[in-house]
């Protein structure tokens, strides 16, 4: 038996930025061999983008390093004539191809599903896009924040007296990555029974709608949009006390909990007059303000202890650095690291799924552009002279 769940699976990763690379990283964490095909020189566009104008090791993008561990890099100019020879050779042995180019780009280059299916009928070809491969938005850019705006997520987030607020992470892209993985794994299982591959299509627009299933169902069936509260109520469809509340030294969250029990902890019986379904929704901003006056007199730790003692669903609000040090995060081993040749030791979030027999593992740092070009081509039968010729022509590049 293999020591990793996907140890005998080879993935040809033609993707860039977040959606595709996160999907292939998830597969790589489970043992898949992932060959990341990048442009010579610049590589994945995420290598040139970063947050806060900060670069690890002076040159390495945290954004790229986050989504590309456990892969090898082949720097290949897909527009070069000889690129077809290389890709077609890799596809002969590949199980999964992942790409998130704009629809039609790879077809024009000869690397579309129909092209690769002729070479390997067992290939599972996963296409990630913003809006699908047809329709009125076909030529629009499909970026994460744009999708959050289009699908109602931003309009449902934030306070009613302020602007819509996108989620503070690449949520649409990450949902898209999960959909690619679930599609690819289902297709692998089907291939075991049928012997043939298929084309998996994932788009961010449909993905974000699906992941707001309860909100969409509510709005569509009652023909009423949610109205954001003006307070810290945590969801536009929820009543009080569901929300975020201030303390002397921070913030706490309170989820679905008996209102009277919360009032009992805070010690203001006058608040019980709101304890009916009509007021808890219609007067939720007013109730939030009254509750916040009381929570603000407590330290976070003291309030948490008092709420947990009576089984109120609650939690502290933490920054990313505070989350790293959280005792449960530490207990789970949810933070790991890898050693990178330029960036040095890089702290990362560990794989989130636990397997009893085939655990996910971090075995490689994110690669340099073309770091494994020679190694990969040699494995696929290209002679040293051929590899040298490909490098000399600029079709292939290797890191120095």
UniProtKB/TrEMBL annotation:
GO molecular function: CoA-transferase activity
Keywords: Transferase
Statement: the UniProt record of this protein carries the keyword Transferase: yes
DNA-binding as UniProt keyword: no
Gene3D superfamilies xref list: Crotonobetainyl-coa:carnitine coa-transferase, domain 1 (3.40.50.10540), formyl-coa transferase, domain 3 (3.30.1540.10)
Family annotation (Pfam families): CoA_transf_3
InterPro entries: CoA-transferase_III_domain, CoA-Trfase_fam_III, CoA-Trfase_III_dom3_sf, CoA-Trfase_III_dom_1_sf
Protein's UniProt name: Carnitine dehydratase
């Amino acid at each position: 038996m293999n020591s990793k769940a996907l140890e005998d699976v080879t993935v040809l990763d033609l993707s860039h930025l977040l959606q595709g690379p996160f999907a292939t990283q998830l597969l790589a964490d489970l043992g898949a061999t992932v060959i990341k095909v990048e442009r010579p020189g610049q590589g994945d566009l995420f290598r040139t983008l970063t947050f806060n104008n900060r670069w690890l090791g002076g040159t390495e993008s945290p954004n790229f390093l986050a989504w590309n561990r456990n892969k090898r890099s082949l720097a290949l100019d897909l527009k070069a004539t000889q690129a077809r020879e290389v890709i077609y050779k890799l596809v002969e042995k590949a199980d999964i191809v992942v790409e998130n180019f704009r629809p039609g780009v790879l077809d024009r280059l000869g690397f579309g599903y129909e092209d690769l299916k002729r070479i390997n009928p067992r290939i599972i070809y996963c296409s990630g896009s913003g809006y699908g491969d047809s329709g009125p938005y076909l030529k629009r850019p499909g970026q994460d924040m744009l999708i959050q705006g289009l699908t109602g997520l931003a309009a449902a987030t934030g306070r009613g007296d302020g602007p819509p607020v996108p989620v503070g992470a690449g949520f649409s892209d990450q949902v898209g990555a999960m959909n690619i993985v679930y599609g690819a794994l289902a297709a692998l299982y089907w291939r075991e029974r049928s012997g043939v591959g298929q084309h998996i299509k994932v788009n961010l627009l449909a993905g974000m709608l699906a992941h707001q299933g309860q909100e969409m169902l509510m709005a569509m069936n009652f023909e009423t949009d949610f109205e954001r509260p003006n307070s810290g109520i945590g969801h536009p469809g929820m009543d009080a006390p569901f929300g975020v509340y201030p303390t002397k030294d921070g913030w706490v969250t309170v989820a679905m909990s008996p209102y009277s029990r919360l009032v009992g902890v805070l010690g203001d019986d006058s608040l019980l007059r709101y304890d009916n379904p009509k007021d808890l929704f219609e007067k939720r901003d007013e109730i939030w303000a009254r509750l916040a006056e009381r929570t603000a007199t407590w330290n976070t730790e003291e309030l948490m202890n008092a709420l947990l003692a009576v089984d109120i669903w609650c939690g502290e609000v933490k920054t990313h650095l505070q989350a790293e040090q959280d005792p449960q995060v530490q207990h789970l081993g949810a933070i790991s690291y890898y050693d990178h040749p330029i960036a040095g030791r890089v702290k990362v979030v560990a794989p989130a799924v636990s397997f009893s027999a085939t655990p996910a593992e971090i075995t490689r740092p994110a690669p340099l552009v073309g770091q494994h070009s020679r190694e990969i081509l040699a494995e696929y039968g290209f002679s040293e002279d051929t590899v040298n010729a490909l490098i000399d022509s600029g079709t292939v590049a290797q890191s120095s």
